[in-house]
Each structure stands twice: as C-alpha cells, then as structure tokens.
Amino acid sequence: MKAFRVKDVKKFMGRLLGTDAFDCFLLAEAAITTYNTFVIDGHVVKEFFTGDVNDDGILPPYPFSEWKDMRALCFDLIKGRRTPVNFRLVLHLKPESAEQILTDGQAQVTPADIRAFVLNIKYDGGALTCTTATAFYTFLPDRSPDRLWDEYMARFLTGRGIDFEEEG
Fold first, then answer.
1. In this predicted structure, what is the pLDDT of residue 17?
2. Model confidence over 17-32: pLDDT tens digits?
3. At the N or C end, where does the chain have fewer CB atoms within 10 A?
4. Interval 47-61 mean pLDDT
C-alpha cells in the first residue's frame, strides 16, 4: 500500500473528471460533500436491466459501474464556484487490466486470487491523496501483487502528467 499526495489538485481533477484518463477503473463507492453529502454505491443493480419490455438480455459486464459512466455525475456534484468540503472515491481497476499487471510482472499468483486492485482517492478540502490497496480472496504470503500495483500506480500517475509525492 502506497499513498501518493497530489501536488496540483486542479490538474488532477481535470484529468479525473474531464478526460478518459481514469476510464480503466470501476466506481465501487463515492461520497461527495458539498451543500449536502452525496453517497453513491457503485454496485450494479442487475434487476434494473432485466424483466421489462426493454430487456435486451445484455447485462453490464462488471459488478460495479464503469468510471466512464459515472464521471459526469460526479463532475456535476463537484463543479461550481465553491470547492467541495471533501470527497472520497473508491475505484477498482478493471479485471482485465489487473490481469495484465500480474502477467507483465510475472507474479506467482493468478487473477483468481485477487479480488481487486483498489485506488482510494481522498480530498479533505485542501490536500488530495491517492492510496493503493489490494483486496485478496484469501490470505497470500506472496506480496508481489501489492508491489506491482504500487509501481503501476506511480507509472500511471506520472504517465498522465500528475505530479505527486509518496507519503509514509
């Protein structure tokens, strides 16, 4: 687990909300506090897509909503003349991207061992921090997935022109 303190919050937010830079993620959860606190549970409700005359038999491919589909909603909640009091986003890397990280890193674990590569984005009214985490289905003594995920996120942020400092 690594924490990356973002140096230029405005630039980061522009990339997060205004471009497809983070579209390789799924939104697991969001809590955005402006004039109210808005909480979004990113779990897809499959019943919404089935059982009516518009049912085409196609379900969303992931258990959580894709960030690209939630980005505009989050932007609408955050935008305005006033800065949000705070917000927290919990993003999961799409499974196919997680599998690629493990393959490229020649990890000794399989994608079936990893529940999710998680990116927690927290803004407290002044500072913005991105923290990595790895969720496993069971205990694994091999910590290489954590290391690979941390390294990937450092490259990911740098590759999108986001300056940061590692904390802790």
1. 97
2. 999 999 999 999 999 9
3. C
4. 76
C-alpha radius of gyration, the chain, whole number: 17
Of 74, 68, 161, which is closest to residue 123 (Cα–Cα)? 74
Mean pLDDT of 103-130: 92
State the DSSP H helix or E strand holding residue 68, giving kind and residue range, or none if neither: helix 67-78
Rounded to whole angstroms, the Cα distance separating 146 from 168 reads: 16
Task: Give CA–CA dist 32/37, Å, rounded.
Answer: 6
Alpha-carbon span 111 to 107, nearest angstrom: 10
Compute the distance between CA of residue 35 and CA of residue 82 in angstroms, rounded to an integer: 10
Q: Which two tokens stand for residue 47?
A: 């019943």
Number of residues that make up the chain: 168
Give the model's confidence band at 55: pLDDT under 50 very low, under 70 low, under 90 confident, else very high.
Answer: low
Q: Left if phi > 0, otherwise alpha if psi is -120 to 50, otherwise beta: which for 125?
A: left
